[in-house]
Specification:
The structure holds two protein chains of two kinds. By secondary structure, chain A is of the alpha+beta class. Chain A has two domains: 73 residues, Beta-grasp domain (Ubiquitin-like (UB roll), Roll); 71 residues, DNA polymerase, domain 1 (Orthogonal Bundle), CATH 1.10.150.120. In chain A, 36% of the residues lie in helices and 12% in strands. Chain A has a five-stranded mixed β-sheet, with helices on one face. In chain A, helix 2 packs across helix 5. The longest helix of chain A is centred in the C-terminal third of the chain and has 18 residues. By secondary structure, chain B is of the alpha+beta class. Chain B has three domains: 200 residues, Aldehyde Oxidoreductase, domain 4 (2-Layer Sandwich); 157 residues, Aldehyde oxidase/xanthine dehydrogenase, molybdopterin binding domain (Aldehyde Oxidoreductase, domain 4); 328 residues, Aldehyde Oxidoreductase, domain 4 (2-Layer Sandwich). Helix content of chain B is 30%, strand content 24%. In chain B, the strands form seven sheets. In chain B, strands 10-11-8-18-15-16-17 form a seven-stranded mixed β-sheet. In chain B, strands 13-21-20-19-14-28 form a six-stranded mixed β-sheet, sandwiched between helices. In chain B, a hairpin with a 2-residue loop joins strand 25 and strand 26. In chain B, helix 3 runs parallel beside helix 4 and helix 11 packs across helix 12. The longest helix of chain B is centred in the first third of the chain and has 28 residues. The N terminus of chain B is likely disordered. The chains are: A alpha+beta, B alpha+beta. Chains A and B meet through helix 1, helix 2, helix 3, helix 4 and helix 5 of A and helix 6, helix 8 and helix 19 of B.
Chain lengths: 155, 725
């Protein structure tokens, strides 16, 4: 019986080398390509996913460390693409090339899960590891504040 | 049979029958493009494709490459506007590489400048044919009909017919010789903030980039290149790599010595990218490093400075600079430098190529499918048209993906292995063996009279030019390359431009804004230095420099530039700068590049060496604006890229090779440094020009001027605060 992990609510057998980073298990083995390769060293945040709800850089996280863990990728963040962050991202026309945005959104979702109304400084600190070369930072900040606002009204 | 051999009428008919709907290939005379100087052959026809299904679904193809600049929304929205199509019924598709879509090489901020008019005409043609179709059905004249939101209406009896119902009839209507374009006041989409067509896919991870391509039987490759340009492989021990589980091949890729060909390397093929990347590290390689093995950017930059601080090769001259200098009341000189830059788009170079006996298919993030066809055609000894190129969404490009060396490499590996190959460069390879923005030095000397009027300007520049890609023996930039110095809008009666020696030791390539980065930096920073010397405020002084321009051909440009500078001064409260807290300052700059005008006012807070950018007011004049939100986004992005290159990013070479390797030692700007950017768009009826690049140039000089205003410290070297690597 092979070991497995849960990805977006479904069980997936770990049928690759245990050293393989989650990023490549997702992209090349399972063909979930929403999670992006940017630097391979945990420096840019493009590959950010959630492991048990927490933001993790999938390019430096081996699958062997994820046995029985719950993984959420951008494809599984919400059922209908309607997470408050996803809505706020659209409302603020955040993406340019969009390549880093899955990582940005996953990182922001992890932030809002522990801090429902982050200050600007707290957003800066939490999002510091996510690079956007197109330069959408101003809109990312605005969208996070807006999503936090939406979430606070839901409660 | 090629499209150009068909009559326009026949082509429509054929295409219409083939698909059951209306495929509108709007053939436009090449003359319109030739006049703009972008196509040499006036006989080449340009085709924009609109596909209208019987159910009204409309597909608009975008021929220009999308890399985040929003062109695949902007241009199709112009088509839809003129067509009176309902944007909700429109699907945008990226066109494959094919000359029938007109020039697809996407660079030089040219897409809107070149394609706005043809795309509008494409939409207007479709609308005229749909109206003609409805008129036929109603047995009335076209004058009695009008189109609105995917319907044609009958003015006489208020009946309406949907575009889908009319599609097949429209396909048989004559193509209007000169379609009538809409008036500005009637635009539905042009000039609005229409959101990007693809952002819904982005936020759920469904937008497919070049790196996401999957085809049956796909094999994955990783590569390591010779670290020094011009070097070659001495030996490779493949054993450890081949012994790894999942590794199938090691392929040596020789240097293909044409522009955009591989510089040479060794690739490993495996059943996933990670294994391939690990295996590359196990290759034991020795390189012959060749002639560039001593390239050292620190020493080279010093040499460039020396080359511009002494007489150099004349590029252009006006008036008599010697007599101006001799009569000077004040003489000022300064030297400015900048380093190599790596584009570092978030998506590293990636493509899938499948070379088979009778076919070659490519899926690539690219800015220039025609160059892929050319390079692969040349390598495989096949006709360029036989190379099928599917243009994928690029995860950023900034000029890097204009060059298709990475696609060529995938083709070599595929040919060798027979498998479809996905080659993804590692970040390290992207940073170390790319094409780089020119390292540069400029020296300016100017004379002023007793009133502070600039009477003479000597401008020397030395940088390895992009021309060296095509002619490596070039020892200095040409007079033409220095044209934007010579034609700068400042009015200088006595002027000389000189080109200093600068041989290339690495591959030089277009980087967002290209030479405007350092030309803009030198001109606007030096003007601020002169203003200080003349004891005048910078706005008055620079305005005067523009007013001194008596060249009739430049009057309109001068006025537009001046107006923007005044706008950002006003918006940034520059006139109240005396009230700013200690340590704060505002700097101004305006630069004209790629036929667009951008001015910036940068407001900083300086504390010792710490520079914090608080606000940026940015004013743009790009003629008729196509998408206000897209334009705003381009300026926000230009500020971020401008700030990275002004403050921190620089590629360093030692012993011929790049020292930087990843984002830890190539510190691009992060979110905490993001200032508040406000963009002010000029409402204009001038013909539209692009915005992908022009925003980058004014940032660094405005920042230098702001820091000087705040602290008295003058930064003349880009980046201001280089990281020791």
């Amino acid at each position: 019986m092979k070991q497995s992990m849960m990805i977006n609510g479904k069980e997936h057998k770990i049928d690759v080398d245990g050293d393989m980073p989650l990023l490549w298990f997702l992209r090349d083995r399972l063909e979930f390509t929403g999670t992006k390769f940017g630097c391979g060293s945990g420096l840019c945040g493009a590959c950010t996913v959630h492991v048990n709800g927490q933001a993790v850089r999938s390019c430096v996280t081996s699958v062997s460390n994820l046995v029985d863990k719950e993984i959420t990728t951008i494809e599984g963040l919400s059922e209908h693409g309607d997470h408050p962050l996803q809505k706020a991202w659209l409302n603020n026309n955040v993406p340019q090339c969009g390549y880093c945005q899955a990582g940005q959104i996953m990182n922001a979702a992890s932030l809002l899960a522990v801090n429902a109304s982050p200050s600007e400084d707290e957003i800066d600190t939490a999002m510091q590891g996510n690079i956007c070369r197109c330069g959408t930072y101003q809109r990312i900040k605005k969208a996070i504040v807006e999503a936090a606002d939406t979430l606070s009204k839901e409660v | 049979m090629s499209i150009s051999t068909l009559s326009r009428r026949n082509f429509l008919k054929t295409a219409g029958v083939a698909t059951g709907g209306l495929v509108l290939s709007v053939a436009l005379p090449g003359n319109a493009l030739a006049e703009k100087g972008i196509m040499k052959d006036a006989n080449t026809t340009l085709n924009a494709f609109i596909h209208l299904d019987d159910n009204g679904d409309t597909t608009i193809y975008c021929g220009r490459c999308e890399m985040g600049q929003g062109i695949s929304t902007a241009l199709p929205s112009a088509v839809a506007d003129e067509m009176e199509a309902d944007w909700q019924r429109v699907t945008v598709k990226q066109a494959d590489g094919d000359e029938k879509f007109g020039p697809q090489a996407t660079g030089g901020s040219a897409s809107i400048r070149v394609m706005f008019q043809p795309m509008r005409e494409a939409g207007a043609t479709a609308k005229a044919m749909l109206i003609a179709a409805a008129a036929k059905v109603w047995k009335t004249s076209a004058e009695n009909c009008y189109a609105e939101k995917h319907f044609v209406f009958n003015k006489i009896n208020q009946q309406k017919l949907g575009y889908g119902e009319l599609a097949s009839i429209a396909a048989n209507m004559p193509i209007p010789e000169k379609p009538i374009l809409k008036k500005k006041k009637d635009f539905n989409y042009i000039g609005t903030d229409l959101p990007r067509h693809d952002q819904g896919e982005v936020v759920v991870g469904k937008r497919v980039y070049g790196v996401d391509t999957k085809v049956p039987g796909l094999k994955y490759a990783a590569i390591i290149h010779c670290p020094v340009l011009g070097g070659s492989l001495k030996s490779v021990d493949k054993a450890d790599a081949l012994n790894m589980k999942g590794v199938s091949n090691v392929v040596v890729i020789p240097r293909f010595d044409i522009p955009f060909g591989s510089i040479g390397g060794v690739a490993v093929v495996a059943d996933n990218s990670w294994t391939a990347q690990q295996a590359v590290k196990k290759l034991k390689i020795e390189w012959n490093l060749g002639d560039n093995a001593s390239y050292d950017t620190q020493a080279y930059k010093k040499q460039l400075v020396a080359n511009v601080e002494k007489p150099a090769t004349l590029a252009a001259e006006r008036g008599n600079i010697e007599s101006a200098f001799n009569a000077a009341k004040h003489k000022v000189s300064a030297t400015y430098t900048g380093g190599h830059l790596s584009h570092a788009p978030m998506e590293p170079n990636a493509s899938v190529v499948w070379v088979q006996k009778n076919s070659c298919e490519v899926w690539a993030s690219t800015q220039s499918p025609a160059d892929i066809q050319k390079v692969l055609g040349q390598y495989l000894k096949r006709e360029p048209k036989d190379i099928v190129v599917h243009v994928a969404m690029a995860g950023g490009a900034f000029g890097r993906k204009f060059k298709c060396d990475y696609v060529h490499e995938a083709a070599v590996i595929s040919q060798e292995t027979g498998a479809p190959i996905q080659l993804i460069w590692s970040r390290e390879e992207d940073m170390r063996t790319g094409y780089y923005h020119s390292i540069n030095a400029q020296h300016i000397e100017a004379s002023m009279d007793e009133n502070g009027k600039v009477t003479g300007w000597l401008h020397r520049a030395a940088f390895p030019s992009i021309g060296t890609l095509f002619n490596p023996s070039l020892v200095r930039s040409s007079a033409q390359t220095l044209g934007d110095i010579t034609n700068h809008l400042f009015g200088i009666e006595n002027f000389r431009a000189e080109s200093g020696d600068a041989k290339a030791h690495t591959r030089i390539g277009w980087y967002r804004a290209v030479y405007a980065i350092f030309y803009g930096f030198a001109f606007s920073t030096f003007a601020d230095e002169l203003a200080h010397k003349a004891k005048k405020d910078s706005l008055t002084f620079v305005t005067q420099l523009f007013d001194n321009n008596k060249n009739k051909d430049q009057q309109e440009q001068v006025q537009r530039a001046k107006k923007l500078l005044a706008t950002v001064a006003k918006k940034s409260a520059w006139h109240q700068r005396a009230k700013l807290p200690k340590g704060q300052g505002i700097g101004l700059a305006v630069h004209y590049s790629f036929q667009s005008f951008v001015a910036m006012a940068v407001h900083v807070e300086v504390n010792g060496d710490d520079i914090k950018v608080l606000h940026v007011d940015c004013a743009i004049d790009c003629g008729q604006i196509l998408n206000t939100d897209g334009a705003t986004a381009q300026m926000e992005g230009a500020v971020v890229m401008g700030m990275s290159l002004a403050l921190s990013t620089e590629i360093t070479f030692r012993e011929g090779a790049v020292v930087n390797s990843n984002f830890h030692n190539y510190p691009v700007m992060r979110i905490s440094d993001m200032p508040n950017v406000r963009v002010h768009i000029t409402d204009s009826d001038e013909s539209p020009t692009g915005l992908g690049e022009p925003g980058v140039a004014p940032f660094a000089p405005a920042l230098s001027n702001a820091v000087f205003a705040a602290s008295g410290k003058r930064y003349r070297d880009l980046p201001f605060k280089p990281m020791a690597v």
